[in-house]
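JOB MANIFEST
job_type = single_chain_structure
chain_count = 1
residues = 322
[input]
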Amino acid sequence: MLAVAGVLSTVVLAGAAAVDASNSTSGATPRSKLTVTAPAAPGGGWDLASREFQQALRGDSIVNNVQVVNVPGAGGTIGLGQFVEFGDDPTRLMMTGTVMEGAITVNKSRVNLENTTPIARLAEDYQVFIVPADSPYRTLQDFMAAWKKNPHSHAVGGGGLGGTDHLLAGLAAREAGIDPKEVNYISFAGGGEVLTALLSNTVEIGVSSYNDFRDQIEAGNLRALAVSADRPVPGIDTPTFIEQGVDVSLPNWRGLVAPPGISDAQRQELTDIVTEGTRTAEWEDALTRNKWVDSLLTGDEFADFIRQDQLRVNTIIKELGL
């Protein structure tokens, strides 16, 4: 009987140890561990924003361990679909923004941002029309004139269908008197792939975030024709569409959401963590280097913003017939 009792004690202790080990693995808190999903390929805007914010959280030890995971495809909706399946996990965040709103509608995604828990809008950046340095198009008007003559012969490369790049191309085409449906738009998983297609002459003009092309612009390999801001952006030596007589502007916001089902206390903790991250020297430096405009918005105000902005994007998509 003593032997049996000893065996039973060993089993009980082993079971308790297993439970403790399980709890130690699953009991991570947002302050000890965060995983940020960048729903695009490496090198794109969401990837850049995710990794910049990763450094902000690490630099001031706001979070002990921050990882970024890339899940590219379909304008971010593949990443979104996977993200909502995580359930009420408060140690996960996903980068999102205008691009995903368009892709949700165009791709008829089974899930949308209403299925997530909004945490914070971080910043806005802007898209550019870009060509190789040896392109015959020296100005936006040069390209618009050629584009108008034969829309389909000029391949335009950008991000996912319905995303900011696609919307900007459609809006610019409409302003040039081109039916947006006639635009020969080729979608890629991220800005890195757009750049490769542009430099290999697979597409004639590229559309993406300024930062996707910044190094190549500064190296003289690419020439920016126009930026989608409604006014000149400090540090970007490229005229806006509006300045060149094309009445188009389109901001591209970046923000973070959490999975559905987390508690109010967990949401507040994540909001506090993200807010602290935006106050770091690392994030201030990221805003300056990347020419991003600070646009912090949290809580229910951010949730209301997402609802209204999704409606705005849906209206643009419907008007353009995309």
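[summary]
Residues 2-26 form the longest helix (25 residues).
The chain has two domains: 30-124+253-320, 126-244.
exit_status = 0
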